[in-house]
């Protein structure tokens, strides 16, 4: 599966999971992860239900990671695809203190790129989290 | 389960399903449905996984209804809850011709209330759809 050019430009790849590729949106102001399922279908609900539940399991995994490492006040989970049609699912940790709260995150400014060190730290945190949960990487 | 006051004010109740109450947001400019699961938990991913998949099944049902009756160009599916904390899942049929495309629907204007006849028509369409799929109402 080829990652959409816009997702590639806007995100860091954190990890390959069984069902999807986990991305981190390059904006350090909010804990914004994106799962890109390994498929050509653009509508989540058009996939076989078993594949949907397997993807939902990875949404749960990322949600748990955010809850354990980012202390969010609320999770935002969404699949829109109006601009980038490749199926992708946003899993976002929102805080009352984030600059966009309580608005949805899309199309907001300002934005602040992660440093290389911060990205590596997220990757290391996620790897450690995966090991602690015995979840298999893809 | 008591429906949040803001959801009650902004929506029409279409149907009680097994896992959730199906609402229609009172804006005829976009095909915007909301599932309110019968639970106190505010995070979808904190629910038992079996309950999540049962809710996902109803998301699929509403998605199929929108695809069959509204001819959307794209589905938007999301659970945010930044303003209304009661767990609710948006299932929205988007069209290239809708007034907000390609932006997300939240916080957009203008908005146009449904007529009573239109609401009744949506209810009748959904009932007919349920009968055609043999899905049980709650």
Report on this model:
2 copies of one chain form a homodimer. Chain A is α+β, with helices and mostly antiparallel strands. The first copy, chain A, has a single domain, classed as HIT family, subunit A (2-Layer Sandwich), CATH 3.30.428.10. Helices cover 33% and strands 22% of the residues of chain A. Chain A has a 5-stranded antiparallel beta sheet. The radius of gyration of chain A is 14 Å and the shape is globular. The model of chain A has no long low-confidence stretch (mean pLDDT 96). Strand 4 of chain A pairs antiparallel with strand 4 of chain B.
* Biggest sheet details of chain A: 5 strands, antiparallel
- The assembly state of the depicted protein chains is homodimer
CATH topology of chain A: HIT family, subunit A
How many separate domains make up the residues of chain A? 1
The biggest chain-chain interface is: A-B, 31 and 31 residues
Query: What is the CATH class name of chain A?
Result: Alpha Beta
- Which strand order do you get reading across the main beta sheet of chain A? 1-2-3-5-4
Task: Give the secondary structure arrangement, pairings included.
Two copies of one chain form a homodimer.
Chain A: H1 5-10, E1 11-16, E2 20-25, E3 31-37, H2 49-69, E4 74-79, E5 89-94, H3 116-133
Antiparallel strand pairs in A: 1-2, 2-3, 3-5, 4-5
Keywords, separated by commas or semicolons:
homodimer, 138 residues, alpha+beta, HIT family, subunit A, 5 strands, 33% helix
């Amino acid at each position: 599966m080829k990652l959409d050019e816009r997702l590639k430009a806007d995100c860091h790849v954190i990890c390959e999971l069984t069902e999807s590729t986990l991305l981190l949106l390059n904006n350090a102001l909010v804990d914004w992860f994106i799962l890109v399922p390994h498929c050509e279908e653009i509508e989540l609900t058009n996939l076989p239900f078993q594949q949907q539940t397997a993807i939902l399991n990875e949404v749960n995994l990322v949600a748990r990671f955010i809850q354990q490492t980012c202390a969010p006040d609320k999770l935002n989970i969404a699949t829109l695809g109006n601009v980038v049609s490749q199926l992708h699912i946003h899993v976002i940790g929102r805080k009352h203190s984030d600059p966009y709260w309580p608005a949805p995150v899309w199309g907001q400014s300002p934005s602040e790129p992660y440093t290389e060190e911060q990205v590596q730290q997220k990757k290391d945190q996620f790897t450690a989290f995966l090991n602690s949960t015995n979840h298999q990487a893809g």
